[in-house]
Amino acid sequence: MSAPGIVVAGLRKRYGATLALDGMSFTVRPGLVTGFLGPNGAGKSTTMRVILGLDAVEEGTALIEGKRYQSLRHPLKHVGALLDAAALHPGRSARHHLLWLAHSQGLPARRVDQVIEQVGLVPAARRKAGGYSLGMRQRLGIAAALLGDPPIVMLDEPFNGMDPDGIIWMRGFLRSLAAQGRAVLVSSHLMSEMQDTADHLVVVGRGKAIADAGVADLIAAVSGNRVVLRTTAGTPATRVLAQAGAAVAATGPDTLTVSGLPANRIVTLLSESAVPFSEVSAHRATLEDVYLELTREAVEFRAATPTEVSP
């Protein structure tokens, strides 16, 4: 049985008095896009740097297919990574930048042309990378990550700088990498993109993983047994349902969220009491709801809400 793509176990690291990693542990498996989410300062970038051998830790291990990054003879053939889209020579063309990387890893020049086409940079391949937009630099960084045709791909905020077409391309591209059997780890702050792209989530806070589960499972857990009720008769509906033991909260114009009663029972109670309604449906949380719920106690800097600000 082959080793999982990436196994992070018990990482601990300090920067002076700051505990950056506090037992960080998770696994990134082949065939899945794993979203890596957490507030600023949660340890995402540090963890990715440790996986790639760029930072050392006091405790714990980070293994790529069962090996430390430093022991890989040709790293780009095992793991491709994009941590900083600006990490390139601005005076080189995209093609020369990739040729230099390929040569350093013993890869043929034809592979450079393949990845340039794969990320859609053929028209700009001979232009100096210093004149690239951020979105184009992201594509170039991804091309570099794919040079060795690695089974593992790690991307830090790949949606940054992408226009709408680029975002749509990126979604499909990440899914295609996973469909090829690769282990894909993607750090992002864009919840909507992760909800549409990731199969699995690792949510981190204060240097440790606070959730490690499938996207659907996490959304279901946060959604709970709540029901969305749309009615123009909010007051009588609340009274009827509360008398039956439900907890009812107004969550929008003509919208109530009901806990404690199944949807079919709500329909029966309202119908028997002649309370009009237009919709009764199971509440489905968004990935943003999941993220906010999980990281509620892990955000280091939180702005006051408008009601908390004195006039």
Characteristics of this structure?
311 residues, Alpha-Beta Plaits, alpha/beta, Rossmann fold, 25% strand, elongated, six-stranded mixed beta sheet, single chain
Question: Could you write a compact summary of the structure shown?
Answer:
This protein has 311 residues and is α/β, with parallel strands linked by helices.
Overview of the structural elements:
- The protein is of the alpha/beta class and 311 residues long.
- It contains ten helices and 13 strands.
- The strands form three sheets. It has a six-stranded mixed beta sheet with strand order 5-6-7-3-8-9, with helices on both faces.
- Helix 5 links the parallel strand 6 and strand 7.
Q: Which helices and strands, and how do they pair?
A:
Blueprint: E1 6-15, E2 18-28, E3 33-37, H1 44-51, E4 59-64, E5 79-82, H2 94-104, H3 109-118, H4 134-146, E6 152-156, H5 164-179, E7 183-187, H6 191-197, E8 200-205, E9 208-214, H7 215-223, E10 226-230, H8 234-243, E11 247-252, E12 255-259, H9 263-272, E13 279-282, H10 287-294
Parallel strand pairs: 3-7, 3-8, 5-6, 6-7
Antiparallel strand pairs: 1-2, 1-4, 8-9, 10-12, 10-13, 11-12
Helix pairs in contact: 2-3, 3-4, 7-10
